[in-house]
Amino acid sequence: MVLLAAAICTKSGKALVSRQFVEMTRARIEGLLAAFPKLMNTGKQHTFVETESVRYVYQPLDKVYMLLITTKTSNILEDLETLRLFSRVIPEYCRAMEEQEILDHSFELIFAFDEIVALGYRENVNLAQIRTFTEMDSHEERVFQAVRQTQEREAKQEMQRRAKELQRQRRENERQGKRTVGYGGGGFGSSSSSRSSDSVPVVSDTMPEPSSRSAPPTRSTGKGMKLGSKAKDVDSFVDKLRTEGQDVISQSTKSRQSASVSKTTTPASRTESVHIRAEEKLTLTAGRDGGLQSLDLLGMLTLRISDDKFGRIKLGVANSDDKGAQLQTHPNVDKALFSSESFIGMKNPTKPFPINNDVGVLKWRLRTQDDSLMPLSINCWPSENNQGGCDVNIEYELLQDDMELQDVTITIPVPSGVGAPKVSEADGSYHHDHRHSLLEWTLPVIDASNKNGSMEFSVAGHPDDFFPVTVNFISRKSYCDIQVTDVLSVDGEQPVKHTLDVALLVEKYEIV
Question: What is the dihedral of CA 8, 13, 14, 20, to 10 degrees?
């Protein structure tokens, strides 16, 4: 068979995705697709229609059509077999056969189409192979990126080191009453010449692309991009790759945390001259069979003053904690004042707080293994079915009725290469990330009004494949219920206008 093009179009004939497999002008493919709605015959599951030059083979899929355009000499049985494979590919990437969903995953669909047909001829592949090919990543690319980032980091560090060395040499020369050594060098005796030659690599070794030019022999002593000593370089490269891998993980974690921080931070345009932030970071690990393994919470009260006339103030703190958190004030804070009156002020009242600087004035910590103190309980119950897969029931329960959790995401790992999970019931919304083999269950808010919820889905796999389950959320209420009640000036104890951010953030929340 010769397959000219494959397209997904609406029932009105609007093309959503189109992929041509042979040389064809845009005007021709647009003409062929425009003629299709006028020719198709409704009422059949699998059907085709022919014109003088081509054959249309199509299949209805809810609100869209899967359409193949072939030559008239192609084998209709092979055409139908190929059409079925194309139709099975679409649900792998689209949760619903809707226009917006298909447009959102158009590139994934085109990549999958390219695995089925090459130069107009069907490849001998099945659905599992297509999924494997499209999800495949490049180890060489990862190594190249790791090497490049390592080189850039080393070059930057070398630039900073040599710049500091130059500044130090210039300061020494100025103290000795000598002229500052320039980049040109020469004319200052042997010591000045050696300094000049040492300073030359600052220009060449710190360029972003040192490998694009060969260094002169006199500059081979530069340490920024040294070649040679292969065995040592290999060991160093392996260590750097490991370090790079850790950096990648930490960067993704930091990006998620920074997004949560930004959601709980007052915009700079709306902050007052006195801004306070009470931030708590939660790390929790629970067992899949129930039971809290560890809960570790770190809290910090941070003060930022942008106007020096508000430097001499004190903060009133209400500690309503009943969970057993341990509090500790900054060494420069008056501990007696905090213990007796619950006010945070400088030990020396005549001294102001630092200006334009985030100052941590109070921190607290909570460690426990008490199940009742968990903010959110997750119960994931996978059970094997008689179809070679698992039926998974996962439910949550809010254990702290006074809390409101926002932007809740419960992430369940699912086996790769077995297709998208079939979700039969879900509170909130869900999304299958096929590239990372994850099922993300999201709920905008969990509070006392919807403290329970569940989701059920089926997919091929083993019960151990669905762990660890991870949870992420934010809350604008202190978990330990430590609040700033008022801000007063030291002189006269007048109220001071201020803004306040309260945030509970998740660093790690796992059910293992």
Answer: 50
Q: How confident is the model at residue 74 (pLDDT cuts 50, 70, 90)?
A: confident
CA distance 505 to 287: 21
- Which DSSP string do the residues of 99-121 spell out, in sequence order? HHHHHHTHHHHHHHHHHHEETTE
User: Quick check: 130 and 115 in contact, CB under 8 A?
Assistant: yes
State how beta strands 64-71 and 117-118 pair: unpaired
Over residues 10-53, the pLDDT tens digits come to: 887 788 999 988 888 888 888 888 888 878 665 555 578 888 88
Q: What angle do CA 109, 110, 115 make, to 5 degrees?
A: 95
| Token reading at 218 | 């006199």
Whether the bond into 468 is cis, omega within 30 of 0: yes
Distance between first and last Cα of the chain: 51
Q: Stretch 351-379: mean pLDDT, rounded?
A: 93
Dihedral Cα 434, 129, 134, 112, nearest 10 deg: -100
Is residue 304 within 8 Å of 487, Cβ to Cβ? no
308: pLDDT strictly greater than 50: yes
Give the pair of three-digit tokens for residue 266: 């007052």
The Cα–Cα gap between 390 and 413 comes to 13
Over residues 412-430, the pLDDT tens digits come to 999 887 888 999 999 999 9
Read off φ and ψ for residue 403, nearest 5 degrees. -100, 155
pLDDT surpassing 90 at residue 286: yes
- Please check the confidence at residue 193 and state whether its pLDDT lies above 70: no
Closest C-alpha to 432, from 468, 393, 458:
458
Q: Which residues contact 151 (CB under 8 A, 6 or more apart)?
A: 210, 211, 225
Q: Which helix (H) or strand (E) holds 215?
A: none
Closest CA to 381 of 371, 399, 396: 396
Q: Does this model's pTM top 0.70?
A: no
Phi, then psi, of 459 in degrees rounded to 5: -165, 155
Higher pLDDT among residues 63 and 234, named by residue: 63
Burial 173-210 (b: 16+ CB within 10 A, else e): beeeeeeebeeebeebeeebeebbebbbbbeebbeeeb
409 with 376: CB under 8 angstroms? no
Look over the chain and give the mean of its residue pLDDT values, rounded to a whole number. 81
Query: How far is residue 155's CA from residue 500's CA, in Å, rounded to a whole number?
Result: 42
Could you give the dihedral angle defined by the CA atoms of residues 235, 239, 242 and 245, in that order, rounded to the nearest 10 degrees? -110
Report H helices in 280-346.
Answer: 335-341
Q: Is 249 helix (H, G, I), strand (E, B) or coil?
A: helix
DSSP class of residue 181 equals: P
Residue 477 has pLDDT above 70, yes or no: yes
Which amino acid would we find at residue 69?
A: I
